[in-house]
């Protein structure tokens, strides 16, 4: 799963149910001098038999891990298929910039960066679902951001799921 040249720098720290694998990337190979925690995620659709096999809320388990690893490092990443349809919902709190001298006086304490300069996220899928709402809430509460559809030139990604009878979506 991990290339030989990286085995000394990347380790599996947790496997949840068989749908989430957490990796720790050593600060020895990162540019910021901190460990990175990477969650490799597959969340089965809520209506699927695969989801029903689990006797827990897998998304809740994901949230707990994000919280845990965020206390150990400010560098937490999620990637994979979360079956989360978010349309163009905000993954950040609008108008959240600290104002003038308040920012200058307290930014060293909070190390807070406003989302004012973040490229607009474009998404051709205007549908939402339960996981999408949960993902947007997770992003707003933790500072994680959705990268899909954020391009400097303002273009959108294409649909990632296309089935003639079921429709199309970006998940």
Write a concise synopsis of the structure shown:
The chain is built from 4 helices and 6 strands, in the order βββααβααββ. By secondary structure, the protein is α+β, with helices and mostly antiparallel strands. α2 (58-72) runs parallel beside α4.
Question: What can you tell me about this protein's structure?
Answer:
It comes from Mytilus edulis (Blue mussel). This is Endonuclease/exonuclease/phosphatase domain-containing protein. It contains 4 helices and 6 strands, in the order βββααβααββ. The model has no long low-confidence stretch (mean pLDDT 83). It has helices at 49-52, 58-72, 100-110, 130-142, and strands spanning 10-16, 20-25, 36-42, 76-81, 161-163, 167-169. It starts with 9 loop residues before the first strand and ends with a strand. With 171 residues, it is an alpha+beta fold. It has a 4-stranded mixed beta sheet with strand order 1-2-3-4, covered by helices on one side. The chain has a two-stranded antiparallel sheet with strand order 5-6. Helix content is 25%, strand content 19%.
């Amino acid at each position: 799963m991990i290339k030989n040249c990286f085995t000394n720098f990347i380790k599996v720290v947790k496997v949840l149910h068989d749908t989430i694998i957490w990796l720790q990337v050593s600060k020895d190979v990162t540019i910021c001098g901190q460990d990175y925690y990477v969650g490799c995620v597959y969340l089965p659709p809520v209506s699927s038999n695969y989801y029903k096999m689990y006797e827990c809320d897998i998304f809740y388990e994901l949230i707990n891990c994000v919280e845990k690893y965020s206390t150990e490092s400010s560098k937490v990443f999620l990637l994979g298929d979360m079956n989360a349809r978010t349309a163009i919902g905000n993954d950040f709190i609008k108008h959240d910039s600290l104002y003038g001298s308040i920012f200058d006086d307290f930014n060293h304490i909070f190390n807070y960066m406003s989302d004012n300069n973040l490229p607009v996220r474009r998404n051709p899928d205007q549908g939402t679902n339960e996981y999408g709402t949960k993902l947007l809430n997770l992003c707003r509460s933790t500072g994680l951001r959705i990268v899909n559809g954020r391009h400097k030139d303002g273009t959108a990604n294409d649909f990632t799921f296309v089935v003639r009878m079921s429709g199309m979506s970006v998940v």
